[in-house]
């Protein structure tokens, strides 16, 4: 008889410290059977995302914390194998938040059927999923970016940043990425088509002149995924009436907060800075996905995935993601 | 023959340090004579405002710096004494930006005629002038405050803060002020009618519990005039989907910037923070002044002025304002 395998959160990492593989445990459980109105999904792909680190803390945040002893929360893409639900049939490909497990029972809520004809299923967790929609909403709804403006995006080689920059280029903007390491920067410019990319691992003394050279007209839209010291420097390069879409602060998730000194730029430059959570803006997903799918089908958006095989690798892969070891979208393939 | 007296900026204070009276010089000059299309104004009141400190630096800001050797820039209220301009007659009361001087020549640009029947002329530099309009725009256009929300305003006993709180009360909000010293807090609650006021001079250990008690439903709108350590603490008390109108950072104008650690609150709470400069939003002044005048005429807005007599006192009064020694609107009466 088939069994399910799940990853459970068994302990919390220190509030301002690094998580470790010991915070997780892989368990085997009986395969659940769908009752009336339910369906059983075989998850093929698990999405790893920076926000997961925040959920592991007990502190008040925009979402309740991940419970101890429960299956880790997370986005998934898979296939319906048994259905007692009128809206789904076996063979349907579905994207949802079914967590770190190979099989999952669902009542259909929060499940989105996807057409994977010509589109790899994993893309529905990346460029055609939450990260892609995040990029679109941050760029167009939060930053309200206009053609001709200068857009800077941090974590430029990541799942969100890579889409931000490509959408901004398609929109007629000058686009500068910030990324960690020469290889990522080369990819961002040569493959993704950004105008420039700055390696934040160079010294702070070199970073500022490089930033000035890359943004001769200063920054009109900053799509911020990282926070910390680089963000503080970028604040000093903002334009009058510029906007900051605060999407993430990955550099701050496992450490004490970096103290920000350039906040007066918000006042001096009349900046609008706004934090946002893409899952709260469901009414904008259809428009975002329609445009992303159109660009994707026409070959105008490129993407890259970092894939590890097997549920047991998920904890290490999440730690790697938080350390910036991934390239593009970090996925776990559930073989 | 009558002479004009002017205060000139003769040297700049250190970029991150205090200004001193030595940065200014009082000079006597010949009284100018208006030519065709010009008018001569006798200034009766000089407005002292925190933004003046920023203009004294040479650094890039939203406005060009105050030039050395020139009359200090600043708002004024006075009376036309000679006019060769078709739009003004002797006896007209006018508000403008005629600078730190007893008499000023003007071509009428930027000059606003005010009706001082029943309204003290000095009020057109305070509650019915730039500070009042700043309060109105920050509260309604930037924060978009709704009835029932909790509004917190710093420098609550100042020219702007005192109007912010009273407008918010008239709008049906819970209003908490932050001010320096027990006397100011008493005034804010007992005279201006705020729901509560917290003295930031109490220790940081006491401030947080006092803030929590005063804002049981957290903060929906923060009208920020001060910046620094108190602002950092307030960031930790913001509500989901709250707004911050960043109007000033007076605590930061004469010192190295205080490092802000709670910026992740912007992300976690999906806050919109926006800097604004009231003089750039001229299209909103008529609506703001109309509502302020209506409330003022009905006795619903109270105000207080701190007045020094004579142009020679202006430098010391500006230093006092930046130290928080004033109560309400700081003015110089040009006797």
UniProtKB/TrEMBL annotation, chains A, B:
One of its GO terms (molecular function) is oxidoreductase activity, acting on the CH-CH group of donors, NAD or NADP as acceptor. Keywords: Oxidoreductase. The keyword Protein biosynthesis does not apply. Residues 20-332 form the Enoyl reductase (ER) domain. It holds the Pfam family ADH_N_2. It comes from the Bacteria. InterPro entries: ADH-like_C, ADH_N_2, ER, GroES-like_sf, MDR_fam, NAD(P)-bd_dom_sf. This is NADPH-dependent curcumin reductase. It comes from Sterolibacterium denitrificans. The gene is curA.
